[in-house]
Amino acid sequence: MQLTFDAVDDLAFAVVRKIRVDAHVTKLSPEHLGPCLEYLWLRRSFPLPSLRHAPQTPVLEILQRFVEAGAPISSDLTLTRGRDVEISRVPETPGSPQWIAFLRRVQCAAAARGHNSSVAAGFAGAVGEMAANAIEHSMRPSSALMGYRTGADGFEFVVADCGIGLRASLQQCAEFRCLSDPAEALTLCIQEGISRHGVGIGRGLGFAEVFRSLANLNALVRLRTENQALAIEGRSVGPLAGVPTERPFVPGFLISIHVEPQGVGATT
Amino acid sequence: MVLRMLDIGGGSVLAGAREGNTAQERMLREVLATFSEVVEIDFAGVEVATASFLREAVFGLRSALERQGVRTPLIALNAAPAVEDDLTLVARTLGTAIVSASSEQPSKGRVLGVLDEAQRAALAALRDAGEASASELHDRVRSDPPVQVTAWNNRLSALASKGVAVEVRHGREKRYRPVLQELEYGR
Q1: Is residue A135 less than 8 Å (CB to CB) from chain B?
Q2: Contact A205 B50 (CB under 8 A)
Q3: Which residues contact residue B41 at a Cβ distance below 8 angstroms, ignoring those fewer than 6 apart?
């Protein structure tokens, strides 16, 4: 059985209710980047069992080295397992060679899974936008991670940070100073033109880039901030297609995108 | 003057506002170092340039130049359809415009973004005239009600600030011409 987002939610809710879940964790294989990252993020807030006893997968091995290692990790560190999984700290220096090279590898990995050049470039652009957002808006740029995974089940990319979260970020804008509902903050943030810098001033275009990159593709987009999760699934997903639901608290913000596989040479 | 975005941005995928800001700073130094009547930003080889990047790099460059008193028009050259889409999106969001052209047809371009009805009329009149001042267009173009010289001046100035027209000084007189010989509006 895989560690899916549903499984992560179930485990977290169980722990909130003080139900032991250690035995369950050992049976769940953490093969997907998004759910595994979300689980590890939840461990910062809840006494979820370590995944050390779960089946070891390339995804888990890399994430554990990032998240559970005690020593500080260089901001230039990129960890890979072959060409299928890669996680990197988001470089805080704009225009750095690591940043450019990472986006290039995202593009190549997506192309290797059958996506045409422009679609693959779109994914890289979406990762770049979300990663840049994490540096600019999280207020904890050193916590920002970006990653991708390719497999027979498709292409996955994630960006996460342990910063202030979407609501606190939006509250920096006078218009949203009284925003108290994290669900509303989540819904607002993914709309085009909404930003902590203001509304309708040419900012807040990053999430639109993510949705545009998924045009005509079947995908799942999962967003997590505070005690809210928003999952948007289907073909050509957009910001109006989902409703946030309450989940156990996570610090910061996570976005996971899983795109279904394309045939080699398919045009999308 | 031609600025190659592939070199300035460092890759074929250009994303993020801070990356755009870095590109803007690099381009600003080059433009201020050399006088050019027009600056072409060549997007050849760039597969994706996100809206956030373009807002800072391209439109941010225009704003930075204006703050320095420099009103050199910027032309986006050889932009891929995805890049043109994002240029249009940003231009519309900011209420401005930018000209897009191709190296294969350097005298022909398309205005991406927003021109209001008066500005479109001014562009059409300017295209017909080739080069003109506000008072010349006032004399040349009959309309009901008539458009005063001041209004023509405002329209032409707006076209220049949007990079669609070039301001040409002849002594104390301000004259304008389209930034490219053949310009069409919209996509």
Answers
A1: yes
A2: yes
A3: B2, B3, B5, B27, B58, B74, B75, B76, B77
How far is A201 from chain B, CA to nearest CA, in Å? 6
Phi, psi of A2 (to 5 degrees): -95, 155
Q: Are A225 and A252 in contact (CB under 8 A)?
A: yes
Average pLDDT across chain A, whole number: 87
Predicted interface score ipTM higher than 0.90? no
Give yes or no for residue A143 having a pLDDT over 50.
Answer: yes
- Tens digit of pLDDT for each residue in A238-247? 888 789 999 9
pLDDT digits (tens, 9 = 90+) for A84-140: 889 888 988 877 888 899 999 999 999 988 899 999 999 999 999 999 999 999 999
Closest residue on chain A to B88 (Cα): A202
Asked if A262 and A113 count as a contact pair (C-beta separation under 8 A), the reply is: yes
Query: Using CB atoms, which residue from A95, A117, A132 is nearest to B17?
Result: A132
Q: Parallel, antiparallel, or unpaired for β B165-170 and B74-77?
A: unpaired
Q: Do B13 and A107 touch (CB under 8 A)?
A: yes
Q: Which of residues 114-173 of B touch A (CB under 8 A)?
A: none
Confidence grade of residue B173 (pLDDT, cut at 50, 70, 90): confident
Amino acid in position A123? F
The confidence score (pLDDT) of residue A60 equals: 86
Its pTM stands at: 0.91
- Give the DSSP H or E segment for A88: strand A85-89
**Cβ contacts of B16 on chain A, cutoff 8 Å:** 94, 128-129, 131-133, 135-136
The model's pLDDT over B140-169, given as tens digits with 9 standing for 90+, comes to: 998 888 889 999 999 999 999 999 999 988
| Chain A residues with beta carbon closer than 8 angstroms to that of B15 | 103, 124-129, 131-132, 209
Q: Is the dihedral of CA B33, B49, A223, A112 positive or negative?
A: negative
Query: Nearest CA to CA, how far is A229 from chain B (Å)?
Result: 24
Integer Cα distance of B69 and B51 in angstroms: 26
Q: Beginning with the edge strand found earlier in the chain, give each strand of the sheet holding B2-4 in spatial order.
A: B2-4, B39-42, B74-77, B97-102, B105-113, B182-185
Give me the amino acid identity at B33. Answer: A
Closest to A36 (Cα-Cα) out of A218, A158, A183, A219? A158
Q: Is the pLDDT of residue A234 over 70?
A: yes
Q: Which one of A117, A131, A202 has the shortest CB-CB distance to B94?
A: A202
